[in-house]
Structure formats: structure tokens, C-alpha cells
Amino acid sequence: MNMTDPQGEALLQRKYTEKVRRMVRERSERIGRPLTAYIATFGCQMNARDSEKLMGILLDAGFVEADTEQADFVLYNTCTVRENANERVYGRLGHMKAYKREHPDTLIAICGCMMQEEAEVTRVREKYPFVDIVFGTHNIFKLAQLLYERMNGSGMVVDVWEGTQQIVEDLPSVRKYPFKSGVNIMFGCNNFCSYCIVPYVRGRERSRRPEDIIAEIRRLVDDGVVEVMLLGQNVNSYGRNLPEPMSFAALLREIEQIEGLRRIRFMTSHPKDLSDELIETMAGSSKICRHLHLPLQSGSTRILKAMNRHYSKESYLVLVERIRERIPDIALTTDIIVGFPGESEEDFEETLDVVRRVRYDSAFTFIYSKRDGTPAASMPDQVPEDVIRDRFNRLLDLVQETASTVCARDLGSVREVLVEERDDHTEGGLTGRLSNNLMVHFSGDASLIGRIVPVRLTESRGFYYIGRMEE
């Protein structure tokens, strides 16, 4: 399904929000308390940002945010990258079945990547008929309309789109932190890695117009944000489908000019699209954080080809060398999959070799999860579970051993830290984040939260520092 008028759609949804607000107010007055809403988010930072927009719509419609599922409206924003993510959602829905029996006026909705799979929608219809609203990833802006339809009718409302080419701007949102925010710069993915369901559930790549991104970030900065995280399935391919193509590096240079913005982060970068222009832009920037997430997935060129990753072990290592030559203090993190179909012991040793040579600051390690609907699911030579588990443990040991050494390189120096929250484990303690994304714990007053302060790194604990704030 495609929309031809995103601005008109935004206006229509504001009208539905007003209608829902009246209904929420009437029911609140009838029961003598505000109506509450809760969102449970599964999966990646794209989903987390979607949930902020969804909660923004709900607050705009008169709901009050709850911190548990004992709420008047409960929404599950789902992930489907791995099968166990689906089962976690169904476990929560099973729990809510009994809750709804006791609280029949509670509305339950499910959205996100999982609902882009027809089989999962059928499962919800058949086994969880008490769910009120079902929608996917392409039409989250329609939440108020779907709520209005359900509150005025009976039975489950299902509205799942196969895809869209349009982007609806200016959605309300609520941020977890007042001083930092995610910002979508693009949606969807064109890469079709053979193990990944994302292109099928998020659709093809759609880049936002640079002027809309800049305007959103300016509004955020005016509202107290000092750090933004630019989000996309592959930010390095940003701008290719715009009427006037623009590179990701050029977008970064535009964002860097925004006065009051102190830090810029982004994820995720696909190695095949990481340009020399981007490396140079990062090297010359005082705002782009010294952290790059560069997924490897496998160190075996043979397995990378089967994964449809479009780079080799050798080209990946050359890319890392170029990055470190221009940005010596960069922190590199990665994703690695263990047990991809056909992975031999020799292939796995190639992965260990890359880890030893790159010396990542940290790595997200995953056991291969077969996803129906992807080419890898039907590949021969699926690796036995006991072999996968042994390899996974060996990889984890190596990652932890190398990362604990790498992460201590700034010990004794003074670094700028964005103070994020209280440290629950230490009285009078604060927790903040370095430009390279490592956490620092130090003593300080809670009034510092949201500020960037100088901290001397006095002790390394492997994956985080203990520090002392400098005057």
C-alpha cells in the first residue's frame, strides 16, 4: 500500500487523535482516574524509536504512561529477527489473556516486524482472539485511527501493509532521556543478507529528506538534546533514492553545523558501503563520536558469500586499517554470527583470526537462528547445536579477553562524559558515556545529568571505567 499525500495523512491522523482524546477523557471522567498506556518494546533501536513515536501518539490522545502491563492500553512492539523473540511475545500475550478476562475493558495491541509475517498474523487471529489491534511497521502513524476504529466497533482491527514508499513526518514522540534522542534518517533495507528477515518486514530503503532530518534535530536541540543517534538499517546507503541524491557523509556535515548539538552517533554501517568520504568526515569532525559499529558476521570469505554480504575477509581488514589510520582513537564494535549453515571449523577459525587482528572494543555475538522465509533457512549442512555452542563459547572467551585489554587504553586520562543517570549501585554515584560509547561510573550530584563533564578515568573494569570528575 502506498500513500500519495503524507502531509494530508498527518492532518487526518491529528483529527483521529482529537476524536480519541475526547473518548479517553469521557471514559476517564466516568471511572474517576486517567487512562494508562504501556508499550513493551522488543528488538533493535529502530523499534525503540518507533515506540517513542507510538507513546507520543498515545500521550497526545490523553493517555498517561504506565510502567507495567497493568494498564488500560497495552501495546507489544515486536521483533522477528530471531524465533525466540516471537515466542517471548506470545508468552506475554498468554499472560495477558488472564488479565483481560479480569479487566475486559483493557485494550491489547501488537505491532512491529513480527506482524509483517502473514503466518504470525494468522496465529494471533486464531490463538489470541482477545487482541484488539494488529498492525505492522509501515503504518505506525495510524495508531490513533486504529484505536478509534476499535473503540467504536467490536472485534479485532487488523491493518498490515505489505510496504510503502512514503514517510509521514512530524509524529509526536516521547523520549526516554531529555538530553539525547534517536533520529530516523531512513527506513527499510535493500541488502537481503541470506539469514535476515528485515528486508521482508521493513521493506525497501526509503531515505528521509535532509531538510526534514535537520529540522527535527534543530527542534530536539531547542528542547535540550545534546546528542543524537542517527538510525537506519544501513546508514551508509542513505540518500541514494532521494530525488536529489545525497551521501551519508554529506548529511553528517550538514548536521554537524547545528549549533548546540554536541554529539552525533549513528548505526548501523554496512562494510560494503562505508566510503572514504565518510572516514574523512569522521576524522575531521569534533562532534561525530569516536565509535563505529561495523558488523563482521563471519571472518570466512566463503561464508560471507553465502550470507550475501558483498565483502571478503580481506576487504574488511583493509577497511579497518583505513579507518584506524585516519581515526586512531576510534572504538570498533561488531556483530558476529556463529553456526551459519555450512560453517566448518576452518571457517570459524577465520572468524577468530579477524577478532584477534581487529581487537574489537566489544562484540555482539549471536548463535545462528533459522528464520523461515529467508534463503539460509533452506540451506544444507545446518551446523549441529553442540558444535555451535562450543564455538560460541570459544568466541565469547576471545572477545572478552581482547576487549578487556583494548578498553583500558584511556586509563588515567581525562575524557568528556555525557552524564546519563544515577548509578543505582553506588550512593551518590552517576553513570555516563564516553564518546567511544564506554560507560563511566563516578561520584557527583544528580543535577549533572544531561551535561557533558570532564572525568579522569582512574580504574578500568574491562568494559567500563571508574572515574573522578575534574574541576
Describe the fold and architecture.
It is built from 13 helices and 19 strands. The protein starts with 5 loop residues before the first helix and ends with a strand. It is 37% helix and 20% strand. With 471 residues, the chain is α/β, with parallel strands linked by helices. α5 links the parallel β5 and β6.
Task: Output mean pLDDT.
Answer: 92
Which class of secondary structure composition applies to the elements? alpha/beta
| Tally of helical runs | 13
Measured by DSSP, the beta-strand proportion falls in: 15-25%
Shape: globular
The largest pleated sheet is described as: 6 strands, parallel
Number of strands: 19
Arrangement of strands in the largest sheet: 2-1-3-4-5-6
What secondary-structure arrangement, pairings included, does this model have?
Layout: H1 6-31, E1 36-41, H2 45-60, E2 64-65, E3 73-78, H3 83-102, E4 107-112, H4 118-127, E5 133-135, H5 143-151, E6 157-159, E7 180-184, E8 186-187, H6 198-202, E9 206-207, H7 210-222, E10 227-231, H8 248-256, E11 263-267, H9 276-283, E12 291-293, H10 301-306, H11 313-326, E13 331-338, H12 345-358, E14 362-367, H13 385-406, E15 414-422, E16 429-433, E17 439-443, E18 452-460, E19 464-469
Parallel strand pairs: 1-2, 1-3, 3-4, 4-5, 5-6, 7-10, 10-11, 12-13, 13-14, 17-19
Antiparallel strand pairs: 8-9, 15-16, 15-18, 16-17, 18-19
In short:
The protein has helices spanning 6-31, 45-60, 83-102, 118-127, 143-151, 198-202, 210-222, 248-256, 276-283, 301-306, 313-326, 345-358, 385-406; strands at residues 36-41, 64-65, 73-78, 107-112, 133-135, 157-159, 180-184, 186-187, 206-207, 227-231, 263-267, 291-293, 331-338, 362-367, 414-422, 429-433, 439-443, 452-460, 464-469.
